[in-house]
């Protein structure tokens, strides 16, 4: 009888631990440790890049991470990511949130969950003004560069079916290939490409057409409804207060070298899932 009684407390503890584990979620983990691990790009100005003076990673996406962390009542732990790391790091739980030019696609939505889209941008092709490539049709038989596994690569392959798409590890490498005349065009989002457009010093120009309009959102690990709901609520509050617009003006406003308006406001991701 004493043997049985001795086992009961241990069994109860094990059962309690199992129940706790079953009900634990990522949002609870974030609040318990007091930090939000948020991943951004580090080589894409002005979304996420290294400030030459402070050597810190700064940008619109970094500020969005800070704003979301503040709304959740925790501190930010920043994590630098490459384009191809975004979904694997999120799916594995090594980051809690991704704010890294994450364009929505149905294929990606099978791997991670998307918040509402907080901005939308056109996909562009940067070409040399002297080449007079003024349409997508003019790129037939030409080479274009894009970042490997990025949505610009996806759209380039869908639309520029008569062009050869060469992929590179990141934006600077894809742009360098363009500047070294290894390719005739560089496929990029309008916002990310503004930095490179400026660096051509007037020799580059966007083809006056969009491959597609891409909704960009924040990424959350799949199967974490509490986390997704909390981040969406934070985005709604930031939109209502005008804080997202303020951050956009800070990095893309008329006083910057990018001067790109945020035309489309916070939009439910279900709008694009149809």
- Global shape: globular
The proportion of strand residues reads: 25-35%
Our count of domains comes out at: 2
Tell me how many strands there are: 12
> Portion of residues in helices?
25-40%
CATH superfamily of the largest domain: Periplasmic binding protein-like II
State the CATH topology of the largest domain: D-Maltodextrin-Binding Protein, domain 2
Helix-strand sequence: HHEEEEHEHEEEHEHEHEEHH
Q: Please outline the major beta sheet.
A: 9 strands, mixed
First-to-last CA distance: 63 Å
> What's the overall average pLDDT, rounded?
91
CATH architecture of the largest domain: 3-Layer(aba) Sandwich
Taking all Cα atoms into account, the compactness measure Rg is 22 Å
| Low-pLDDT ranges | 1-23
CATH class of the largest domain: Alpha Beta
What is the structural class? alpha/beta
Please count the helical segments. 9
Protein name: Transporter substrate-binding domain-containing protein
Pfam families: SBP_bac_3
Organism: Pigmentiphaga aceris
Domain Solute-binding protein family 3/N-terminal: 35-255
Report on the structure:
By secondary structure, the chain is an alpha/beta fold. The protein has two domains: 25-120 and 214-271, D-Maltodextrin-Binding Protein, domain 2; 121-213, 3-Layer(aba) Sandwich (D-Maltodextrin-Binding Protein, domain 2), CATH 3.40.190.10. The protein is 38% helix and 26% strand. It is built from nine helices and twelve strands. The chain has helices spanning 2-23, 26-33, 60-72, 86-91, 151-159, 171-179, 190-199, 225-241, 243-252; strands at residues 35-41, 43-44, 48-50, 57-58, 75-81, 97-103, 112-128, 143-147, 164-168, 185-189, 204-206, 213-221. Strands 1, 5, 6, 7, 8, 9, 10, 11 and 12 form a nine-stranded mixed beta sheet that branches. Strands 2-3-4 form a three-stranded antiparallel beta sheet, with helices on one face. β3 (48-50) and β4 (57-58) form a beta hairpin. The termini are far apart. Residues 1-23 have low confidence and may be disordered.
């Amino acid at each position: 009888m004493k043997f049985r009684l001795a086992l009961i407390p241990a069994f109860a503890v094990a059962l309690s631990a199992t129940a706790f584990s079953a009900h634990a979620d990522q949002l609870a983990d974030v609040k318990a440790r007091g930090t939000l691990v948020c991943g951004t790009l580090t080589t894409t100005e002005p979304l996420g890049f290294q400030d030459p003076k402070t050597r810190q990673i700064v940008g619109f996406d970094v500020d969005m991470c800070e704003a979301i962390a503040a709304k959740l009542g925790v501190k930010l732990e920043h994590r630098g990511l490459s384009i191809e790391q975004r979904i694997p790091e999120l799916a594995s739980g090594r980051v809690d949130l991704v704010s890294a030019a994450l364009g929505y696609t149905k294929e990606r939505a099978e791997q991670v969950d998307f918040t509402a889209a907080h901005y939308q941008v056109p996909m562009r092709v940067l070409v040399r003004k002297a080449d007079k490539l003024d349409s997508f049709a003019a790129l037939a038989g030409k080479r274009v560069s894009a970042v490997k596994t990025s949505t610009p690569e996806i759209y380039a392959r869908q639309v520029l079916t008569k062009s050869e798409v060469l992929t590179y590890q990141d934006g600077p490498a894809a742009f360098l290939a363009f500047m070294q005349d290894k390719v005739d065009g560089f496929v990029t989002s309008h916002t990310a490409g503004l930095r490179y457009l400026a660096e051509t010093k007037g020799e580059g120009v966007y083809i006056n057409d969009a491959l597609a309009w891409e909704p960009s959102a924040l990424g959350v690990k799949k199967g974490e409804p509490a986390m997704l709901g909390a981040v969406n609520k934070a985005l709604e509050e930031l939109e209502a207060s005008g804080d997202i617009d303020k951050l956009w003006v800070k990095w893309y406003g008329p006083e910057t070298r990018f001067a790109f308006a945020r035309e489309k406001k916070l939009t439910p991701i279900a709008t694009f899932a149809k």
